[in-house]
Automatic annotation (TrEMBL):
Cofactor binding, note field: Binds 1 potassium ion per subunit.
Localization, UniProt: Cytoplasm
Principal location listed in the UniProt entry: cytoplasm
GO biological process: tRNA methylation; tRNA wobble uridine modification
Residues that hold (6S)-5-formyl-5,6,7,8-tetrahydrofolate according to the record: R22, E87, R126, K461
Keywords: Cytoplasm, GTP-binding, Hydrolase, Magnesium, Metal-binding, Nucleotide-binding, Potassium, tRNA processing
Entry binding sites for Mg(2+): S237, T258
GO terms for MF: GTP binding; GTPase activity; identical protein binding; metal ion binding
Alphabetical list of HAMAP family matching this protein: GTPase_MnmE (MF_00379)
Protein name: tRNA modification GTPase MnmE
Amino acid sequence: MEFDTIAAISTPMGEGAIAIVRLSGDEAIPIADKLFKGVGGKRLKDAASHTIHYGHLLDPKNDEVIEEVMVSVMKGPKTFTKEDVVEINCHGGIVSVNRVLQHVLKYGARLAEPGEFTKRAFLNGRIDLSQAEAVMDLIRAKTDRAMNVALGQMEGRLSKLIRKLRQEILEVLAHVEVNIDYPEYDDVEEMTHKLLLEKAHFVREEIQKLLQTSQQGKILREGLSTVIVGRPNVGKSSLLNSLVHENKAIVTDIPGTTRDVIEEYVNVRGVPLRLLDTAGIRETEDIVERIGVERSRQVLKEADLILLVVNYSDQLTAEDENLFEVVKGMDVIVIVNKTDLPQKIDMERVHELSKEHKLVTTSLLEDRGVDALEEAISSLFFAGSLEAGDMTYVSNTRHIAILNQSLHTIDDAIQGVETGVPIDIVQIDMTRTWELLGEIIGDSVHESLIDQLFSQFCLGK
Ligand code: GDP
Ligand code: ZN
């Protein structure tokens, strides 16, 4: 494919000592060559691929020095975009990087749109759509584990599985064709039905397995929205502090947001907890009293995880009982705090109320029990699969929606075979499933969808 040459700053704004201006396209090397003056008059035009060159950028108009630079020359197709790529490393600082970018634009490059480098990699066949989306996830990854999921996806783990499923469907479709072409052979029809059911069930199961990982995948990507509830003085703020202090808090740096609406993430053994911000219901004292059981249920329902704190050194009150009532059926960890003080709580009753929940005892004052709490959090969301680092997760909303749709069409196909629907109708459902799965890896995606997807990327990626 033929594209113009694009350029952008590809390192985070204002961060680090080095900043990179990246160019991609047929003119990438000639444009850089116009500006570059290497030691001993070396020209970038003559440079071998994948080499780095020290020198200065000069404005060709007046020979004014723009920057002292290191320039990497990488010739396609062995580059991220499959096009010729030049990376100009400069001394950071927003002013100097911008100066370099401005000159590159002045001498023939066009400013890249957000995500355009990745889009090119996709359009040039270097990566498939799910891999491109993974690049975006990587940029936003909140914990190492989330990063690994994205990395796995970028390496094509999901794509590989999807391709395999599509291949299975194609094989069945080929058999169906034979059946339609040679209807006079009875046993062909019988075999086709058997094979259809077999493969359709196999594909169905694999899709379902993938969908089951989606909850975890989504949590890894977006964080687990967490609310701490309990009546006044039980230790909610102490719990919040200890979670934030023991675990590296990840503050997302979204431009344009002010400090008080920034969400706080803490990384609990690879599970990113998104502690709902102050405007939300991070700490809900008297929530039940204030808005009633039903309303508070609605509010808390938005949360993925409820940490319900009660006081070991105090009797259970009606308010405590109310809270247990409100959180019924949700993912709850009950925390019995202040175990360093004499017991007044009826633990038998607490166990009874916590039957469907996990329960830990803590003394936040003496810093005891927090490990057990973290263990409970991580086991709640990686039940049994904590070590399964090479699992294929689905975390992307678009992928989940498509998988749900294809589950539907494959079900139609299975039902069709079982109820004796004409085989060419079943064929349509199978074909539709094949098409849908193709949308995940971008084999049959509409152009505007592609534009929309890539526009979500950061600039310079
Ligand atoms: P909140 O009102 O639920 O947010 O409770 P706080 O976290 O503000 O704690 C209320 C009081 O209990 C503070 O004085 C804390 O220092 C104290 N506190 C918290 N956890 C413990 C604990 O485990 N043991 C004891 N003895 N005091 C605690
Ligand atoms: Zn408090």
